[in-house]
Specification:
Elements: H1 5-26, H2 29-61, H3 75-81, H4 88-95, H5 105-114, H6 118-144
Helix pairs in contact: 2-3, 2-5, 2-6, 4-6, 5-6
Length: 145
Amino acid sequence: MKISVEEQIALRSKAKSELNRLETVMSNEQIMDLLDRYKNKFNLCESTYKVVLAEHQFKTKGRMPAQLKLDMTQAPFAMVFAGYKIDRDLLNRLFGAKCDRGRTAKKLRDAVTHNLEQKAIDEIEARQSELFSDMDAFLEIIRSS
C-alpha cells in the first residue's frame, strides 16, 4: 500500500516533531538523571522478583515458562511461596496494572522506557518520594529476609 506525497510529508513532519520532543526531554540532565535512577531502581526490584517467580513457576508448573511476566496474578503467590511476608498493596503499587495513587511503578517504567511519555515523566517527578520509598521497601524485604 502506498500513501500520497502529501501523506508522506505529513508523516515525516510528525516523526520530526516526535524526534524534537524526545531530544528536548533528553537534553534535560535533571530529568534524565531522575529517569535513570528510577529505571535502575525498578530493574533491581524486577530482577530480584523474577528469581523468585522463576522458581515458583518451575516448582508449581514443572517447567520454566518461556517468558516471566510481572503481574499481580502471580506476584503475591510467588512471594508467599518463597516465605516472604509482604504487603499485597505494596506489590500492587510496584507490579500491578493500576493503583489508587496513579500508575504503578511498572506502568510508569514502561511508559518512560518505551516512549518517554511526558505524563509519566511528570508523574514520576511528582511522586518520586513515594515511588522510590516503595521500591526501597520491597528491596529491604528481600535484603533482610
